[in-house]
Amino acid sequence: CKKNHDPASCRPGGRSPILPTRVLDVGSTSCKVRLIETQGARGRYMTMSHRWGEQMVTTTQANIGAHLRIIPWAVLSKTYRDAIDFTKSLDCRYLWIDSLCIIQDNKDDWEHEAANMGNIYSKSYLNIAASQSGERNDGLFNERFRLEGMKLGKSSIEPARVHVGGDSILVRQAPYIAHDHILGRAHRVTTGHSDIGGSFSPLFERAWVFQERLLAPRTIVFHHEELVWECAKATWCECGEINSSSTPSAIGYDELYLKGRLTRLNFNADGIVYSKEHMFSFWMDAVERYSLLSLTKESDRLPALAGLAQRLSKRFSCRYLAGMWEEDLARNLLWSRDPWRETRSCNDLSDYCTPTWSWTFIR
């Protein structure tokens, strides 16, 4: 990607980006990690998309002083340790993880960092997507998922030789779960294989991850079935079914298709100068997909999309109004909810301040 792809889309050129307010300095010494306050310094850093778990260590006002000195290796989850090892393996010194780089019980700090989330992910060198992270805490480098009774090869990707009479054939398990979640199909499938895969890909059902995946120039997905690479110019998976020629989908709200459209909107990657009308069309498709995703706190409904909105607002000089665009407001107001989905009304307006006419009010 670094050598062969257009730097305007996959990695804007120029100097190293300004580092986020805080990053993890993973250094070069094994098992030594600390939080640093960057004070406007520049450097290459990686980010992480993951699902929070109850036993996960966080930075708070009580422990930030200790974290600035050292974060004990033993208190880090397996997913965090694997992400740190992977960052170091790519000769990258800094890693940004939200739970450790934002002071979680400081409202002002959280709001400041949440507003900067678009910049943090869009300037990342590489985003690590831990698709199976959460309560399971399996880490990144785990056993490949197999169907019960499947005894093929050393993993779901490597084929096994099966003898049939005097002949032999190569057989491998089709990684259908990974493909459903990577391509954004799982939320539209209520029966069959995707039900099995839900517990193995919880990351892609989280609303915060939506903009992280769209904005990051490069993402590597660690899935139970296989590794998947995503960037603005190409997508590849280990088994070969998902590749750069097959991902543009006719269904407008698949994440990979949306990512390609966002790249063209921002960088005119195919030589076409796109208009506000193109942006408005993209936004409606993006919102349709985003509104299906889950949040732990409904008050995050707008913040979790703010980075994407901010990027589009700067590019097209549009005024953003609670999930809608002023110049396209008449059409944006024609939203309706899916009658087959559970509806939750946001009654506590003191905690969740959004207009009742916005699609973000009722879910």
UniProtKB/TrEMBL annotation:
Residues 45-212 form the Heterokaryon incompatibility domain. InterPro entries: HET. It holds the Pfam family HET. PANTHER family: DOMAIN PROTEIN, PUTATIVE-RELATED, HETEROKARYON INCOMPATIBILITY DOMAIN-CONTAINING PROTEIN. This is HET-domain-containing protein.
